[in-house]
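Case study 2.
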Amino acid sequence: MFLLQRVRLLATSLLGLVFVALSFSVAATPASAAVTFGYGEGRPDMFTDARWLALPLRDVRRTVDWDTPSKPEKLAALDVWMKAAADTGSRPLLAIDRRWDEGNSKKGPSIAQYTKLIKFLQGRYPTWKTLTPWNEANFRLQPTAKSPKLAFQYYQAAKKACKGCTVTSPVFLAGGAAADKWLKEFVKISKGKVKLWAYHGYGDNNRFTDKGFTKFEKTVKGQIWVTEAAGWVKFLDTGAWPYDEERAAKVITGIFKTAKKHQSRIKRWYFYQWHGESNPDARWDSGVINFDGTERLGYQALVKGLQG
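Prediction:
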């Protein structure tokens, strides 16, 4: 069975090379040597898509619910994803996230439970070395939303437990006065100990501005990674961002321009979501490939941006 899987993977990889030769040539390095681009996607089939294999993207990202070790179905899904990443020579960034079951999303682990989780992940995936202590820590449904102190405690526990790892800050999700207050408190609590920051600036990306990025750079000291960036094909049900593939593609083009402008501080960008949703009424869709496998305009924008 294992040999068969390897053969299938090799065949897919070769198909990816053929795809490049026949359709376009992607630069061996990203648009700017000063910036590294990666991709975030929780579905493992991205790793067997010839179009993804043809791109110069081997830094990948996935969130991990903190209760994963106690949930067989979640652990099995993570095992599949991590193996697919390893088989393609990809370097995973794992971001610890909330529980998603009803009524429990705001319940976080104790520091002892958190430490046990990190050690479990290192033991199960010994080649994994890049960690974000908590995903979107200031988001209202996270256990850290009202406690920058707890977010910093998770950061400290991650630094101590994840031996030999590159550890970012908990992710800061930009947006409004409440977010700014949370960040100010976190910076004060951390006392200059955080040297690598994780940031999500979807609002700026999709409004074609970089004001939030500039503000964040002025607030924190050290290097910054944008661990999720995307053009919204569809977002929420307010009507502000209805389904629009063309708009999303323009946002992706804009992200590459922002990356170049801010390359002195922001050294890594992970795009988010490879496959779109099957339901056009989904509240979130930022995929560059349709659910049925056909390409969206965003994919072509991605390819062009990586070519520089």
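The first strand starts at residue 36 and ends at 40.
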